[in-house]
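Batch 3, record 17
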Amino acid sequence: MATSVTTATGVAARAVDVWKLYGTGEAQIAALRNINVEFERGRYTAIMGPSGSGKSTLMHCLAGLDSTSRGAVYIGETEVTRLGDKGLTELRRDKVGFIFQQFNLLPTLTAQENILLPLSIAGRKPDQGWFDTIVDTVGLRDRLGHRPTQMSGGQQQRVACARALVSRPEVVFADEPTGNLDSRSGQEVLGFLRDSVRQFGQTIVMVTHDPNAASYADRVVFLADGAIVDELHDPNADAVLEKMKNLDKVGEHPRGDA
Amino acid sequence: MFRAVLKSLLARKIRLVLSGLAVVLGVMFVAGSLVLTTSLGDSFSNLFATAYQNTDVQVAPKPAPGQNADSGPSAARGATVPESVVRTVRGIDGVRAAHGEVMTNGTVPLGSDGKAIPSTTGQQYGGNWSGSDSVVQLRSGHGPRAPDEVVINAGLAKTGDFAVGDPIRAIINGKTHTFRVAGIYGYSGNRDSLGGETSIQFTTATAQRLLLGRTGVYSDVTVTAASGVSQQTLADRIGSRLGDGYKVQTGAELTKKTTDSLKEGLKFLNYILLGFAGVALFVGAFLILNTFSIIVAQRTRELALMRALGASRRQMIGSVLLEAVVIGILAGALGLLAGIGVGAALGYVFTHVGGGNLQLSIGVPASAVVASFAVGIVITVVAALFPSLRASRIPPVAAMRDAATPDRPLTRISIAGGVVFVGGAVVLGFGLFGSLSGTATLWAILAGVLIAFIGVALLTPLIARPVVGAIGRLMSFSTAGKLGRRNSARNPRRTAVTAAALMVGIALITGVSTVLSSVQTSIDRLANEQIKADLIVSGQQTSEVPPSFDTALLGRMRGISGVSSVAGIYRTSAQVDGRNTAVAATDDVPALEKSLSIQRSAGSISGLGDHQALVDSKTAKSDHLKVGDTVRVKLPRGGGTYTVSGIYSSREGGMSGWLLPHAAVAGFGLTNPTSAYVTVSGSGSTASVKKQVDALLADNPLITVADRSDYVHQQTSTFDTVQTMIQILLTLAIIIAALGVVNTLALSVIERTRELGLLRAIGMKRRQVMSMITVESVTISVFGAVLGLAVGAGLGAAVVRALHDQGITQLSFSWGLMVAYLILAAVIGVLAAILPSIRAARLNVLNAIAYE
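Prediction for the assembled complex:
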């Protein structure tokens, strides 16, 4: 689908006037304040912000893992915020891919089984060509029969990446994907994510607090105190770091980051 | 440290409840059985204290040969006390009053439907009415005045729905008589019966004629003392006056004897209940062991941190054991309370069944309280011992590592399991085949089974992997099923202990049903081989006295066309050369021998002279008797010297013992035949003969005629009842094991929270999560069942093999039941998964992923 790669048009996910509130009355805290953001299809976006800025909460709300207090979230044309549990489950299964900081692989399954898990849960047949492409891209061809305990952290996270991509989701959400990795493994994973955007037109939204990780993205959205405060396109690590320093001065309100 | 333990307990309430519940159930059985026996014992003591309230001394004949001296009113027609003794006793100084009493067991009342009214205690008294006193109270009508008038107790009136003026039929010595209810009486304290018995009282003359066979004799003499004369003094005086021929007992002695024999009976009930308590606790121990193992595994980091902070090994062991003690105390207390409730409820049922409304006084013996807490604490602590040792071996450095500890190899535990299993098998084999005395045999078998079970439980992890994989494969048609199967094979130890608990219950049930069905099959086969008679006339025993029928019927059966021979059988208790035994007599020796396939061993067995007797080869061998020897036989109402004229042999389980000539029947306690074997001639039709014999027996519902296969089936049908009872009780063990499955699953769900969160995050539906947990549960349960069926079948086969010499030659498995147990296990698996799977499906995806 070379055309869709180059013309990367449309919006994969968007938030409209999203508020996320915790508690009531005096004790009420706003984790997200009137967020309006769009994530274009075929782009690699990083969400950054200091601890407690609400970046993880935003991602959870976008992915349908958490509910919003006000406002609407869309994945493609689907309004996530109107879905019940069943709809959310199917949304996550068919339209969303996840990559977690903790890898979160099933220890009883081999690498191959872990990668194919979303498809087998849905009862769908894997596309062998696509599977091979992913496996070769992440470089796990010789590890497919191994269990998670027999693999390094970097390898496990690459399995998690392959798993997120295998069902060709509308958007992949990655939550601090390099947080538990050494810098070399982290770079491999980040490079692989960027390649999947470039080569396959995948849409990726990644939460991170690491400026170096953010520099792999096409665009960085900055969050502070629950609101979007800034944005960078085609960033480099130094620019991101500079922005972050400023943000740290702004957002000094301590708050439990969800 | 104590505060930390309490906090950790409170933080794990569900776990506490689940593991505690097993102990509570076990303790409940222990306490319940002790409370029940004490309460019933107390109630019956009170009862008999009032029953003999107006009896200071009782004069009774010496018990008939072979009869139990303490079994209350002499069964059937035994020895009697003549009228003259009553007069003699009246003349003794210190006697205020003495009257002759007729009281025998075996007067069977018939209901309006023509069927016998059963008595819960097996006592169906007939006697002479001696008027109201402070214990016996006439409630309506009047005493019997005519020979056909009777007074019945209110209990019988209620069960049989009799009112004053109604006709009542009763079978006495094989004959049906019709009377008219003249009055209904009860006992002091507004009781309808003493203990659920039926009682029909006649005029003295009628009672003597019908029950004792002649007038002028009594069953015993009831004496009241003049004021100022003690029971013992009076008894001594009467005793010395009457000499050795009579048994003289005080009212206090009688009360004590009756109560003691009742308590002896209750002991049996006690043993059964305690046995099931044992099973429940044994299974419960598995559950607790598993819970503590999982808790220790889950808290590895926490425990390692405590070690790192300087807690000693001993403190680690102490902290786990302290938790066990607290659970034990709580479970003991709850079990005790539940046991008191169960004991009281069972006591109420026992005392109110069959119209008896006995006053029940609930007694909680100190032993119940002590046993409840001791059992509760000891079982939990023993079960928690291994997990506590494991906790103490956690190195401090584990606090810094990932909590997931690698699977330890199963070599050591498997070797240990093998050794223990072989040890148990050896002990069991010693018990089954060795030459131990009675009680030692029982203990060896019990210990053997127990040790073998532990051995199998230790071996289970090794078996778990392949077997669980195989079982799971049957269910892994979906991704959820596949994941469930993998999860159940994930921690072989945990799966093993959970399944082992189920294994114990199912193995016991399977073992018991294997033995029972083998015994049944063997008896069936033996009886079919041995009994050559075409029709068998016999009675179902409903009271202590076997039902009998009129001798004249034998002749009338012979008169039926198509009948080639009839052998009537008479039975009685007797003493042969001083030894208590049961003897038989027949009116047609060759017909009996033909009917029962009896073979000649020595001498002649073709007939019997009036002073000749036949004996079976086994008895002859053990008593060193040969043809021509003489034996002294004491019968309830006679006896004499008999010469052994022949020795016969029959197969194991067939006819055995002494066969006396027809003439000896006059001295039997029961002079009517109790059974008969009818042979139909080649030209006759069995069915038509059966119909005619049926017609002859029409007015005696206690006696029935059956063809050979029906008869054989009747003989073994009691086994079905026994099997049902044991199944019901052992179901408790299975319920506890099911709790174990729930517990394991609940803990697994907690442990795998993050995985479940991930599965939900990547799109697994709630229904899929639930079916995943259910598959895991069913796999574990079916694994336990398969193990239990294998172990139980092996156990049953071993017992059957040991019983080979007792004539149990057929090994037969009740396949239907075994399949039913397997299905039951699968159902248990599904039920056990309900709560954990709902819990898993309801997990908040976001929290679950972030769960540590």
